[in-house]
């Protein structure tokens, strides 16, 4: 249909209203992200955490604002197909010179699908694929920072350039010893280069904005020498308010994957061109999906959009079916996966057997709490989807029967689009990274036998990490509730992460008690509880029978985490939180810190060899002393 037949001014005005709505969203998002620098400089940690939580809500607020405007001014839901098609074409035209076109396309999708009926999802009204390329996008403002800056030092004079790099961010406050920090980082870079000679292209590239998260600021970049590229990140912390220092030097893709993990809070970064930041970060972490990088930058809707495109692409280029996920089945969630795809799909069941006392609304509230809370590297991030559609032939009959039995309200099997293709439609699901269930990880060690040294090391590591995960969660004001091994998973980095959220509570809402002494011999011999228990009462001494039935597990647990069975541990941490303390966490091991043997300690040099892993005891909070101004609640 020709453009002049469908009220071009109406379509154009609708497109302009939507780009206005997006521009307002990103302006507010970027402003809040940029303010993280001031909060870091002034050590306003409570405000930093509050801003991280509140920023998550920005997107949905702006989408609703734009939806209301379109309905109020243009009666958008009543407009015919031709108007919407032309509105999209006008919108594409508005993105040609835009600096965030990929985000604006996602915003268009969000607004459109709020207004139009679900049956429109398969037509041309939304951006199924990107319409505007983000390649080589860069700012046109000569006064603005480019995406990254390049420095060209001499290998034997790295310290000078590193001083310039650290000062180039204009942080208010003074470095405790800038020369020392520059020397430490230079020495670390030289160790990474080993015996490599300086090549003609020798340079350091650093992203122009620092990455802020809670009490830390991260300088992210890479060293280039010939065909070798060394990714690195430098955590900048406060020794005391206004006194800065570089705490460590993190190198290589593995270190950065842990820093940008799906189990940590989102960074705040001032970015005019987010796609350029993502492209730079992909060069440091080529195995990390772009969707997860957008998530790490706080652009969760864009991450979700890209994830869905990746899922559709994977379905098109694979043939293995969805199945019931391995592991012990949960009472609240039905979990399925596809072996070739590294994510799991979680559907809330319709009914929950005793002793579960909850509802779908309460469970969704718990997941939302986790989304907004500081995940401290110990809780998996989730993506929430509605009306997911998959080809019926990709589902096993066993899985369909499982959903029909436990979550029939969430299942539809139909030819929704009228194209002759029968689909399985899931009304609501959470999707998160797949991990090895901790109980299966332990079972592998049990099956290998006590004489297997590798299995013994695996068991010891699992128990240590399990206790550290609980202690990190406690320090972040989270009580897991159900602490059974099956509710924790092991990442490919060996990190133990919690992923069952239906029973979590704030630590400050719990009442940790010692089990009262029996009143008489009858109480002592009774198999029943003889003392009163209120709703939020927790008795740490009772954890043992549920968790430590295996003697090998019990021995390892008591060596490293016996304090978890003592109410005093929980009460002391609870008191620190109630007093307003923001407890410290590090997304890297103690051995990486310059204050510990210059940051070059090997396994043999550490008092606790397990501390070599950035996911192990070195990361647990120091509960014996007040927190200093280090990054907390990672």
TrEMBL record:
The active site is at 381. Residues 604-634 are annotated as: Disordered. One of its GO terms (cellular component) is cytoplasm. It catalyses: L-seryl-[isocitrate dehydrogenase] + ATP = O-phospho-L-seryl-[isocitrate dehydrogenase] + ADP + H(+). ATP binds at residues 325-331, 346. One of its GO terms (molecular function) is ATP binding. Its main location: cytoplasm. Residues 15-319 form the Isocitrate dehydrogenase kinase/phosphatase (AceK) regulatory domain. Keywords: ATP-binding, Cytoplasm, Glyoxylate bypass, Hydrolase, Kinase, Nucleotide-binding, Protein phosphatase, Serine/threonine-protein kinase, Transferase, Tricarboxylic acid cycle. It is found in: Cytoplasm. Its EC number is 2.7.11.5, 3.1.3.-. It comes from the Bacteria. GO terms for biological process: glucose metabolic process; glyoxylate cycle; tricarboxylic acid cycle. Residues 320-588 form the Isocitrate dehydrogenase kinase/phosphatase (AceK) kinase domain. Bifunctional enzyme which can phosphorylate or dephosphorylate isocitrate dehydrogenase (IDH) on a specific serine residue. This is a regulatory mechanism which enables bacteria to bypass the Krebs cycle via the glyoxylate shunt in response to the source of carbon. When bacteria are grown on glucose, IDH is fully active and unphosphorylated, but when grown on acetate or ethanol, the activity of IDH declines drastically concomitant with its phosphorylation. Belongs to the AceK family. NCBIfam families: PRK02946.1 (NF002804). This is Isocitrate dehydrogenase kinase/phosphatase. It comes from Ottowia oryzae. The gene is aceK.
């Amino acid at each position: 249909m020709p453009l002049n037949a469908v009220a071009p001014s109406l379509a154009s005005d609708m497109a302009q209203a939507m780009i206005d709505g997006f521009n307002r969203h990103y302006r507010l998002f970027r402003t809040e992200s940029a303010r993280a620098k001031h909060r870091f400089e002034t050590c306003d940690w409570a405000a930093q955490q509050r801003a991280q939580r509140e920023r998550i809500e920005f997107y949905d607020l702006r989408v609703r604002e734009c939806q209301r405007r379109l309905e109020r001014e243009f009666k958008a839901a009543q407009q015919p197909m031709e108007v919407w098609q032309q509105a999209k074409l006008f919108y594409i035209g508005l993105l040609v010179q835009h600096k965030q076109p990929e985000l604006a396309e996602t915003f268009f999708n969000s607004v459109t699908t709020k207004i139009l009926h679900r049956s429109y999802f398969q037509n041309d009204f939304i951006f199924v694929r990107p319409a505007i390329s983000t390649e080589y996008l860069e700012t046109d403002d000569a006064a603005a920072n480019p995406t990254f800056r390049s420095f060209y030092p001499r290998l034997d004079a790295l310290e000078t350039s590193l001083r310039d790099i650290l000062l180039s961010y204009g942080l208010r406050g003074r470095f405790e010893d800038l020369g020392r920090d520059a020397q430490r980082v230079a020495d670390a870079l030289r160790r990474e280069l080993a015996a490599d000679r300086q090549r003609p292209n020798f340079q350091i590239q650093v992203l122009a904005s620092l990455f802020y998260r809670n009490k830390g600021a991260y300088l992210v970049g890479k060293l280039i020498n010939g065909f070798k590229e060394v990714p690195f990140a430098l955590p900048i912390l406060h020794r005391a308010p206004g006194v800065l220092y570089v705490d460590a030097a993190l190198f290589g893709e593995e270190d950065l994957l842990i820093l940008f993990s799906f189990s940590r809070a989102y960074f705040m970064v001032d970015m005019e061109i987010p796609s350029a930041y993502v492209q730079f970060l992909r060069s440091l972490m080529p195995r990390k999906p772009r969707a997860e990088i957008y998530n790490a930058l706080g652009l969760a809707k864009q991450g979700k959009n890209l994830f869905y495109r990746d899922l559709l692409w994977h379905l098109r280029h694979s043939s293995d079916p969805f199945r019931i996920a391995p592991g012990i089945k949960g009472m609240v969630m039905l979990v399925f996966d596809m072996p070739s795809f590294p994510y799991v799909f979680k559907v809330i069941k319709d009914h929950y057997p005793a002793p579960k006392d909850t509802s779908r609304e309460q469970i969704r509230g718990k997941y939302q709490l986790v989304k907004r809370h500081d995940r401290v590297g110990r809780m998996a991030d989730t993506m929430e989807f509605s009306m997911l559609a998959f080809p019926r032939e990709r589902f096993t009959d066993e899985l369909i029967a499982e959903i029909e039995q436990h979550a029939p309200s969430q299942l539809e099997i139909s030819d929704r689009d009228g194209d002759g293709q029968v689909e399985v439609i899931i009304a609501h699901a959470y999707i998160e990274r797949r991990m090895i269930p901790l109980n299966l990880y332990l079972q592998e060690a049990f099956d290998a036998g006590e004489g297997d040294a590798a299995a013994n090391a695996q068991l010891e590591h699992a128990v240590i990490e399990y206790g550290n995960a609980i202690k990190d969660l406690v320090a972040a004001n989270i009580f897991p509730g159900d602490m059974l091994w099956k509710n924790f998973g092991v990442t490919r980095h060996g990190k133990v992460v919690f992923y069952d959220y239906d029973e979590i509570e704030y630590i400050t809402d719990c009442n940790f008690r010692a089990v009262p002494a029996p009143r008489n011999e009858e109480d002592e011999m009774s198999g029943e509880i003889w003392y009163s228990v209120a709703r939020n009462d927790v008795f740490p001494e009772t954890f043992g029978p549920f968790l430590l039935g295996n003697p090998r597990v019990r021995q390892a647990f008591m060596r490293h985490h016996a304090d978890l069975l003592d109410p005093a541990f929980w009460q002391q941490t609870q008191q620190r939180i109630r007093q307003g303390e923001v407890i410290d966490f590090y997304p890297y091991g103690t051995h990486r810190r310059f204050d510990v043997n210059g940051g070059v300690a090997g396994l043999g040099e550490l008092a606790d060899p397990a501390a070599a892993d950035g996911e192990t005891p070195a990361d647990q909070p120091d509960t014996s002393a007040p927190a200093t101004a280090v990054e907390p609640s990672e």
